[in-house]
Amino acid sequence: MNQTRTLLMFALLAVSFLLWQAWEQDYGPHPVNESATTSATNAAGSTVPGAAPSIANGAAEGTAQLITVTTDVLRLTIDTRGGSIVRSELLNYPVEPRTKKDPNPAPIRLLDDGAADYFAAQSGLVSADGAAPDHRAIFQSAQTSYALASGQDALNVDLTWTDPSGIKVVKRYTLHRGSYVIDLDQQIDNGSGKNWDGNAYRQLQRVDRPVPVYSNFLQRISDQSRYGFFGAVWYSPAQKFNKLAFDKFEKEPLQAPVTGGWVAMMQQYFLGAWIPPAKESDTFSSAMVDEVGSAPRYVIRAVGPQISIASGQQASSAAQLYVGPKLPEVLQTVAPGLELTIDYGMLKIFAEPLHWVLAQLDKLTGNWGVSIVLLVLLINLVTFKFTNAQFESAAKMRKLKPRMDALKERYGDDRQKMQQAMMELYKKEKVNPAAGCLPLLITIPIFYGLYYVLRDSVELRQAPFFGWIHDLSAADPYFVLPILYTIVMLVQQWMMPATAGMDPTQAKMMKFMPLMFAVIFLFFPSGLVLYYVVNGICRLLQQWWVTRRHNEPQAKAA
To answer: In this protein, which residues make up the domain named Membrane insertase YidC N-terminal (predicted)?
Structure first.
């Protein structure tokens, strides 16, 4: 297998990968709203495993208000109905890249109370025989606006609920400077004159993402956000990381006792996760809620152990909420296994080392594009011996082309004899036609691993390079890099004709290779195309050096 066959196989694999992704998104399973089977359950509320009462959905009576809480990295909106966090804006992550015309674009809104993108972090208490505020109860707040002051490291937001029976609950959120972790403490004071028994719960509720509208097929396959997992996930030390797609909520509902785990809703780059105390035994469950006049909502919940409080005593229930970007070095410190939400799929074994190397190079250069260029140089240095063997074999094959053509003329249509004769010729001249296979085994994992890194690493989201490249995770807006790579391929074909040792059909296909790659790379992340432009130039220089070395003895002999 020579270099041209390697490129052909690589192109076919890349095209197949794109088509497979598009097929999965367009024709794979999607959530089904089977209201006939769920309406009875949802009308009364979803029964909580491990707790006597049920957690109801819908609104309680009373007037609620919205509270704004601002830190250096977050701006939250808390609804006093349930004390739920209904909006979260990530101040360091704008929707669009910053430009001179718009230096302060709107930040990403992860939690959202809009009907089309509804996503809320809810919490509450339930009790079988006593008063308890669930996520519908009306709380009171002393202020409608809170802000982390200069020099202040932590900010407390207290919400209070009281019942005529004497039960009082203070729900306290604590936010920290520079952190996306929010501490939640629910303190229960029992002044009812009798024992109070109940459970604390935390849940995430959201709708499926809206179906995007595309003008054509190529625009659809170039949208990298549609290929990442969007749905519920959970983790336990015993069962590790698990996904729960929205279309599986009714078919494979979650119900599991877990100690030391967490539940989350994730999407490309960002996630929201409830993290109970590490030693607390919770029950994880899922539910599907039908909302009148809107899309169905999906709930993943963690219910804590029973809390028993004697009259005149108090107790509390604590948890943490993470609402932010999927940064591996941050997630590792928040909870065990939370970094697994950076979903590299089956290519994790290749993607994680590539991300680590890129991150280290970025610390040196301060530019992810420059880091990609340096990564190319490092990989070419490591694989120099193997790629050199590939080009050496290709150069020898080129020398043998006249003799191979003669064999074709001699044996005509007898392909078996022709193949035997060619193998004898290879053996005699010490040519290994399979020398191109090993570089392929290295190239393909790097290609797909880097593709997942560019697609799912939030550090590369809107990361600029130079000039016209303002986002390495998006396609080249002016198609400069795909054109450069096409030129590199044409020069390679000119230096090393692609038809040596090929049958006519393969030779014709190879002539279309530059055009095929141009089309493929038009819609790939520009960081990935940058990698292959620089890699192509490195290989071109290596090919030129090998070819010159083999041609010099012939020139001297002539």
So the answer is: 67-357
